[in-house]
Structures are given as C-alpha cells and as structure tokens.
C-alpha cells in the first residue's frame, strides 16, 4: 500500500524557517518524481514545487521561488521542503504528492504568525 | 502561466441527479488534466487523469471529457458521499495550476 506521511509542520514566526519531511512507503520511491502542494485555510489548492526522481531537476511556484528548496533522499525514501523567510501567506496545509497526483499524504499544517 | 477557470463555483443538486462541472484552460493543455474530489479535512483524491481516464478504484459514475482548452467532469446518480468540492488541474506545463474549485452541495 502506497503511503506518504508528512511531518515537520508547526507554528513559526514571520521570517523564520521550517523543514517539512515526507516519508514514502509501498512503492519504489526512487522511480517517481514528487511534488509539494499547499492549501491555505478555506482556500483552493496551490502547487508549490516539483523534483525529479533523481533529484536533479526542480521547479517552483513563483510565490516560493528563492525561499523554498525541495530535495529528496532516495536511500531514505524521503522528500523534503526547506522553507525560509516564511510569510503569513505561507500559512497552509502542505501535502506531499506522488508524480501524477495519484497519491497524497494527509498533510502537515504550517502556521506563520507572531 | 496557464489559468484554469472552473464553473460554476458552487452547485446545488439532489440525490440521484446528474451534474456537470466545466474547466477551461487559458491555452491548450494537450489533455493533461486531472479532476480531484476533496472532502472537508481530507486530502484531495484523484478521480480522472488525462482528461478522461478513470483513476483506479474510482466508480464509473464519474466521467471526464473534453480536449484542447475545454473540459468537463460529469457525475451521474449523485449519492450523499459525492457532495464535496471538486478541482481541475493542468499538468501540461509548469507551474502546474488548479481551478478555483466547485463546491457541490445538497439541495
């Protein structure tokens, strides 16, 4: 069974940093590209970032480019999102999502507030 | 960026009804379109990919159609568990973009 389990969310002050993790199981993680998608409270879905299966190609939404860094460790079956210079508008549930958006984690909530 | 516009934003229907939701892309997306269902407090669930292919395990009451820039999701014989918010998403080019969502409510 495919499972994606996010962790690392929490309350952080504006300008702070946070690192999200996603533990993958039930499939050959190293063969799949991965995405992060977020959803602000009561709002729609926003794609955040993509990383290729090898970790050599990354893409970002304009809203996070230069502040967020996506990475992966295929030996640990893990996906990461390093979030720096956080803003109030980054407050959202963050989902780890497999390549074709067929499997999603349960999400981890990030709240940016003073 | 490709803009995805869904209509309607909200929809009231009764159990047993058939409903259609529309998604329009600001440019051609080569049928690289996914439809999702999201229930409150839950992660989205993929229903349809490549505009018209049913995701494994999804009942055939859900169907997708369209090409080019105009796409539709049809849900037949609505049941109580179908009342949720539905999103379309293009995965033709980065940044991937979602429609704003259609909230399907019980009449």
Describe what this molecule looks like in 3D.
The complex is a heterodimer of chains A (114) and B (107). In chain A, the strands form two sheets. In chain A, strands 2-10-9-4-5-6 form a six-stranded mixed sheet, with no helix packed on it. Chain A has a four-stranded antiparallel sheet with strand order 1-3-8-7, with no helix packed on it. Chain A starts with a strand and ends with a strand. Chain A has strands spanning 3-7, 10-12, 18-25, 34-39, 45-51, 58-60, 68-73, 78-83, 92-98, 108-112. Chain A is mainly beta and 114 residues long. In chain A, a hairpin with a 4-residue loop joins strand 7 (68-73) and strand 8 (78-83). Chain B has 107 residues and is mostly beta strands. At the A-B interface, strand 5 of A face strand 4, strand 5 and strand 10 of B.
Q: What's the pLDDT, averaged over the residues of chain B?
A: 97
| N-C termini distance of chain A | 40 Å
Q: Pair with the most extensive interface?
A: A-B, 18 and 21 residues
What global shape of chain B is seen? globular
User: Mean pLDDT score of chain A, rounded?
Assistant: 98
User: In DSSP terms, counting alpha (H) and pi (I) runs of 4 or more, how many helices of chain B?
Assistant: 0
User: Main beta sheet of chain A: strand number and arrangement?
Assistant: 6 strands, mixed
Number of helices of chain A: 0
Structural class of chain A: mainly beta
- Element order, helices and strands of chain A? EEEEEEEEEE
Radius of gyration of chain A: 13 Å
């Amino acid at each position: 069974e495919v499972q994606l389990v996010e962790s690392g969310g929490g309350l952080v002050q504006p300008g702070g940093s946070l690192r999200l993790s996603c533990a993958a199981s039930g499939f050959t993680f190293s063969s799949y590209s991965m995405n992060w998608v977020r959803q602000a409270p009561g709002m729609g879905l926003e794609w955040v970032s993509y990383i290729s299966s090898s970790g050599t190609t990354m893409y970002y939404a304009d809203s996070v480019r230069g502040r967020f860094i996506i990475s992966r460790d295929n030996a640990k079956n893990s996906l990461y999102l390093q979030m720096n210079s956080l803003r109030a508008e980054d407050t959202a549930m963050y989902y780890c999502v497999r390549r074709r958006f067929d499997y999603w984690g349960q999400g981890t909530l990030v709240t940016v507030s003073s | 960026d490709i803009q995805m516009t869904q209509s309607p934003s909200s929809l009231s229907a009764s159990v047993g009804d058939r409903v259609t939701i529309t998604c329009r892309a600001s440019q051609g997306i080569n049928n690289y379109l996914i439809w999702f269902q999201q229930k409150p407090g839950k992660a989205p669930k993929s229903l349809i990919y490549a505009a018209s292919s049913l995701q494994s395990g999804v009942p055939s009451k859900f169907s997708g159609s369209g090409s080019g820039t105009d796409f539709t999701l049809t849900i037949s014989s609505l049941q109580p568990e179908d009342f949720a918010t539905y999103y379309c998403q293009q995965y033709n080019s980065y940044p991937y973009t979602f429609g704003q969502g259609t909230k399907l409510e019980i009449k």
